[in-house]
Amino acid sequence: MLPTIEWKDDAVVMIDQRKLPASEVYVTCTTAAEVAKAIKTMVIRGAPAIGVAAAMGIALGMRRSKATGTKQFTTEFQKLCDMMAATRPTAVNLFWAIECMKKTFAEAAQGGCSVDEIKHRLEREARKIHDDDVQSCRDMGAHGAALVPDDARILTHCNAGALATAGYGTALGVIRAAAEQGKKVAVLADETRPFLQGARLTAWELVKDGIDTTVITDNMAGSMMRLGNVDLVVVGADRIAANGDVANKIGTYVVAVLAREHGIPFYVAAPLSTIDLQTPDGSRIPIEERNDREVTHVGSSRLTPEGAHIRNPAFDVTPAKFVTAIITERGIARPPYSDSLAMLVDGGQLAAGSRQ
Ligand code: MRU
After folding, report:
1. CA of 47 to the centre of ligand 1 (A)
2. Rama region for 188: left / alpha / beta (φ>0; ψ in -120 to 50; rest)
3. DSSP sequence for 177-213
């Protein structure tokens, strides 16, 4: 499995996703600040992977702490949590992972644990978040593969693969699981302007796995659907509001509307850590605006004239009405999502027909 992020001796090591597919190089982070910078600058990206990285960064930072008393140690911990929370605003997995670390810290501190014991527990929690994420992806894959017919032509947007998680992937996990079951699958990967996660990362992962992959530019998706070349769409998510509205990579909304127009199922695969029941609908999801340079340049070449205004929202919101089903590690949620998502998060059973 791809080593998206892992502990190595006294450091957190991640594959540099900015450099793929041209070169496979690794970034070694020895401080929490280096991990935060890696998240911000997209060395590591993808909602679940961002959460995992933040947890590992906090554990790493606290391991390095020289504090002897719990007061100083607590202040340092809070600072690291704030630093991680300021990296990227949209993926709720980041805030979910920070909350997990805070809960671990609070339980250990209230239980009278020593500073060393708290360090140990934080690291254990970060490792658990990592390992659980891989397991969730595999479970999501098992549920989602049932929705993939044999000989399916599947369109995906951005990269919701092993690189975007601790391993295996969400949307690509569904595709992988279908392929592992012996189904014939062919993937159309949207290139995903401006950061090109689809062309660079999704294509790299799938080609490595021997899965039939065709890269298209984003503006080809509608035509491919109209020509009958797409049987289903599956994408990941950065945050799913309580009503089922889905924030994901910019361009996802266009794909969802096109899929509806052409009668093609539009599936979202995401772990429960991506579901944000505190956010009632998509209008409340913060959308990250990234640097103009991602739009104005490819590498060192300028594409746009000086003086043109630039917009670079990194995500959009797809209204729940366009989402055929949401695939999670606990089962498949169907509309109305305000009921089915709440049930899944609670660990409850869905009504017959909602869960598959
Ligand atoms: O800006 P990115 O590359 O972090 O955006 C990633 C996406 O939008 C993914 O589709 C999403 O995080 C799901 S990853 C399993």
Report:
1. 5
2. beta
3. HHHHTT--EEEEEE--TTTTIIIIIIHHHHHHTT-EE
CA of 300 to the centre of ligand 1 (A): 24
Instruction: List, chain by chain if needed, residues with CB within 6 Å of any ligand 1 atom.
Output: 45-48, 91, 158, 160, 164-165, 170, 197, 236-238, 248-249, 314
pLDDT band at 18 (very low <50, low <70, confident <90, very high): very high
Ligand 1 closest atom vs CA 235: 10
Handedness of CA 305, 311, 312, 318 (dihedral sign): negative
- Cα(238) to ligand 1 centroid in Å equals 6
Q: What pTM value is reported for the model?
A: 0.96
Q: Which of 133, 139, 190, 238 is catalytic?
A: 238
Q: Does the pLDDT at position 348 exceed 80?
A: no
Tell me how far CA of residue 286 lies from CA of 52, 85, 125, 241, 283, in angstroms: 20, 13, 27, 11, 8
Atom of ligand 1 nearest to the CA of 88: 4
Q: Is 224 left (phi over 0), alpha (psi -120 to 50) or beta?
A: alpha
| Residues 250-269: tens digit of each pLDDT | 999 999 999 999 999 999 99
What's the mean pLDDT in 204-222? 98
Q: Which atom of ligand 1 is nearest to the CA of 47?
A: 12
Neighbours of 71 (CB within 10 A): 9
Query: How far is residue 289's CA from residue 286's CA, in Å, rounded to a whole number?
Result: 9
Q: Is 238 a catalytic residue?
A: yes
Length of the chain: 356
According to DSSP, the β-strands at 185-190 and 5-8 are unpaired
Q: Say how many Å lie between the CA of residue 248 and the centre of ligand 1.
A: 6
pLDDT above 70 for 243: yes
Please write the tens of the pLDDT for every residue from 88-120: 999 999 999 999 999 999 999 999 999 999 999
What does the longest C-alpha to C-alpha distance in the chain come to? 67
**Rounded to an integer, what distance in angstroms lies between the CA atom of residue 328 and that of residue 272?**
6
